[in-house]
Amino acid sequence: MEKKYFIFGACLILIAVAGFLGLKNIQQAKKNISISNQLLTVGEQKSANSNQDAAIDQQPTGDSSQEVAVGNVQKTNNEQSSKSDKQNAVENSPVIKEASSVISNQLSSTDAAKQSSSAGKIVSKLVSWGFQKSSERKIDTVILHSSYDALGSDPFSVSGVIAEYKQAQVSPHYLIARDGTIYQLVSDQNIAWHAGVAKMPDGRTDVNSFSIGVEIINTQTGKFTDQQYSAVNSLIATLKKKYPIKNILGHSDIASGRKTDPWGIIWGKVNR
Asked: What is the per-residue DSSP string for 107-160?
C-alpha cells in the first residue's frame, strides 16, 4: 500500500516538473515570437525609411529637370531678343532708311505720274441720248458745270453720274473724272442738252446751240482735284485751237438764282 502511494507521488512530481518545463518553453517561444515581430517591424520601418530617402533623393532630379526647362525657355527668349535687336538694328540702319525713303519716293512718283498721265486724256464714251444732231453750229462758249452720283454709294462714280444723265435724258459734251480723265459723251458739233433755261451776259439765249458743256465731278461741299484743274485747262486749250472761244463761264453765270454750280471752283486756277 505504501509502495503504491510512493509511485503515485513520484508520478505527480514528474508531471509537475514536466508542466513547469513546458510552461517555461511556451513562455520562451512567445518571447521569441515577440522579439521576431519587433525585429520585423524595425525592418519594415528601415525599408520605409529607405524608400522615403530614395524618394527624397529623386526629388532633386525633378527640380533639376525644371531648372533645365527654365534654362531652355530663357535661352529661347534670349535668342529671340537677340534676333529682334538685330532686326531693329538693320531697320534703323541709315542705309536701310535711305533705301526705304528712295523706294517710297519712287512709288509716289510713279503714282503721281500715272495720275498725271490720266489728267487731260480724252476718252470717247459717246451716249445715245441728251443731245440733238447738228452739223453747222458756231461754237464760241464753254460752260462749266459740276455734278455727282446722288443715287449710288460712290458720289464720284463716273458710271453712276452717266446713269443719272440717262435717267434725266440730258448730257454734257465732256465729263471730267476725279483723276482728270476726260470722257467725251457728245460730239462737239451736236447740241448737248446741258444748260437748260439760260441767258448769257450779252443777252443771248438758247445757250446750248453755241456752247460746249463740261461737267466736272464734285459734290456741293467738295473741292476739285489738281488733276481736274489740269484737265479743264487742257480741254480749254484744245477747244480754243478748234473754235473761236470768247466765253468761259459757270452754270451759275447763265442761270443765276436757279443754278449754283460749278461748286467749289477756284476760277483763278482756270485759264479763261
From this structure: HHHHHHHHHHHHTT-EEE---SSSEE--SS----EEEEEEE--SSSS-TT-HHH
Overall pTM > 0.90: no
The DSSP secondary structure of 177-241, one letter per residue, reads: -TTS-EEE-S-TTSEE--S-S---TTS---GGGGEEEEEEE--TT----HHHHHHHHHHHHHHHH
**Distances from the Cα of 145 to the Cα of 86, 124, 196, 220, angstroms:** 58, 19, 12, 11
Of 73, 92, 111, the one marking the end of a domain is 92
Same domain, 130 and 18: no
Torsion of CA 111, 113, 117, 118, to 10 degrees: 20
Burial of 207 (0-12, 13-18, 19+ CB in 10 A): buried
Q: How many other C-beta atoms can be found within 10 angstroms of the C-beta atom of residue 5? A: 9
13 and 82 part of one domain: yes
**One domain, residues 260 and 168:** yes
Give the residue numbers marked as catalytic. 215
Task: Give per-residue pLDDT as tens, 94-126.
Answer: 654 554 554 455 544 445 555 556 789 999 999
* Residue at a domain's end among 41, 70, 92: 92
- Cβ atoms of residues 264 and 270 within 8 Å: no
Q: Report the C-alpha gap between 205 and 197 in whole angstroms.
A: 8
User: Count of domains in the chain?
Assistant: 2
- What pLDDT score does 88 carry? 57
CA distance 188 to 166: 19
Distance of CA 116 to the CA centre of its chain: 29
The 10s digit of each residue's pLDDT in 135-183 is 999 999 999 999 999 999 999 999 999 999 999 999 999 999 999 999 9
